[in-house]
Structure prediction request, 742 residues.
Amino acid sequence: MLKEFFNIKRDVRTFSFIFAFITSFACFFFPLLNSLSYEYSAFNSILLGYLSGLIIIEGLVKGDGSRIDKFTFLMLGLVAAVPFVISFFGTLFFQVCPVWQGALFYLIITIPAIFIGAVLGYFSFIATKKFRKLIFSFVYLVLLLAPLAEIYFRPQVYLYHSIFTFFPGTIYDESIPIDLKMIQFRLYSMLPFVITLIGANYIKKTNNIFNNKIIIPIFIISFGLYFYLKPSLGFSTTEEVLKKNLIGEVVTDHFIINYPQSLSVSELNHLILLHEYYFFKITEQTGINYSEKINSFIFKDNIQKRKLFGAGNADVAKPWLGQTYTSLDNYENSLKHELVHIFTAKIGSTFLKLADNWNPAVIEGYAMAIENDYNGYDIDYLAAIARESGYTIPFSKLFSGFNFLGGTSSISYIYSGSFIKYLLGKYGISKLNSFYSDSDFQNVYGNSIEKLESSYYSYLDSLNYEIKRSTAQLFFGTLPLVKKICPRISANQIDEAWKSFSEGDYIEAKKLFDKNYNYSGAYSSLVGKLRSRIKLGEISHAFRMAKNEIKKFEKSAYKYSLLIEFGDLAGLNADYDYADSLYSDVSNYLPNEYYVCIAETRKLLMKKYPNDYLLYIKGNQNERFYILTKIHNNEHSAYFIPLILNLSNELKISHQIVNIQLDDILINDKYIGSYIYNLLSNYYLIQGFYQKAIGFSNLSNKLSKPERSNTNSENLKKILWINNYADKILRGKKIKDFSVAK
Prediction:
């Protein structure tokens, strides 16, 4: 046995073990792979699954096909165990991540993959006489890549996969729970291989030539059934499944829109009109003629979207299918962006109809440039404050390969969008469309990216924006996934803690939040720690904790949210002067208008309605809405309006109730005036009160600041267009939803 072990050159089994051993240590030098985690388990499922098949074939060859010897089983066991042991103890002694959830990932993801690879190796040996390792490699590659067809052809970005078990769809969904569905799929995914193993073993024992020929059809049929049944079992999504869950369907001149049944008539009409307006606007801006109907799927919320489509925290388009996927709570912000992706299919390349080389900076930058609206700000403004505040990235790096995905997403999106917007303004849409198809700066623009970057920064400087570093910190002061500590395990634990909190088990929630924060330092964990203690009456303890921990977030995007939380704790601790100073800090920093409204609302309540103030900061969303609307009848405070609108949207409060609160609003504060009037214009636009919407939009534009002037102006154009064409467009709609009035 030792002789075989040291015979590396001639024995694939020994080589496979040593390769797995070295690779396990190499993983310590790569983010996400440097601890026992989902990524480490998924990576090893692919690698070790392949190596296990080679080990089995080599063992059978060495044993003349009659048996698998002890050395082969030893190598197979070592290949399965050693990467786990290395990562387990490496994580235990050199990382801060909990090891037990990582161990579960390895058990559920990697170990079954090793079994699957071994069965495929056994099958390849029995079914063929020559080139067994080559045939196994081909079959394994097909097994690895074939399921990707589900993402290409079906309306989903998540993937349940027989090798690496599960992929959530995008990097923005950090939580990957080990739930019952994952375990059920893992058992289901092994069935075809169990059938194959039984069949191959029977054939090996009978040694019948005819049986050798039928093992391949058995293998193909079992896998055909496996893929066919996946949608029925909830492990894949078809259009039929989507339409069964999104009951409503409406057909317009340019769209087939599927939506949840809960929409009111006015909300559905607005949905239709917004789609048609953006179709008109994108056609005008890009010069692209899109003749096919676009399928737009609107999910009830992010939870439903993640379950049926994947990517709960990101809206997505599939240009090659002509489909967009958004949710009711975010489509207003993302629909135009996703529709731009659909239009670019006409100028895209390869079977995915994306930008040249699938360059994400070009793909997203083009959409951002046409959209030119990021949370109501002009993207040039955000790029300017990012640069002046030290949030930079060389464009040669940003536009190279997939580096776009490796940094803070907001930085990547803003710089790529603003830069491409600059190219659009200077060189025109025709060249930009050519660049999308051939992303070579020298070929299309006659200059290197470095020279274009230099001229872009000169353009940015010429805009003379007022630099607010607090706003830059709010938008860009977060960490990318690859720099977070134990992101998957931490996100799973935080979700579990918030679930306990929502169920009223504050002791368990506190325990879980404390445990998580000790190693992750996550903002959400700290907030959970504080709020759990508030619910348990441990106000003084929570106050001291916040005072100590808030310093760690001084340069974080969460600084301003934590100042509000800290102010609430000071108020609950009866230290009203300190609470007022903390709220005033937020107002003085001016991170954005919404934070100012949050802070000033609390200051007003604390000063004039102290009892309601305490009820407000301790209350749930329903209680907060009641308090604000009650006091707003007396105060008519502009600061209340964004909060009332947000709460009414979350709670699905009737427009008739909310409208009473918004009559006769006069805003003297110029900083928040344009912002609030813009909110009101969109609020009335959704209800179909177009004249009110136009009036508020005009007021918003009169008070508009440079960083919002473009988005406010575009909003007025949108309202005027909808006002002019609403009747014509809505007369032509065809609804397939009997729960909505025709």
In short: Residues 738-742 have pLDDT under 50 and may be disordered. The longest helix spans residues 100-127. The first strand starts at residue 159 and ends at 161.
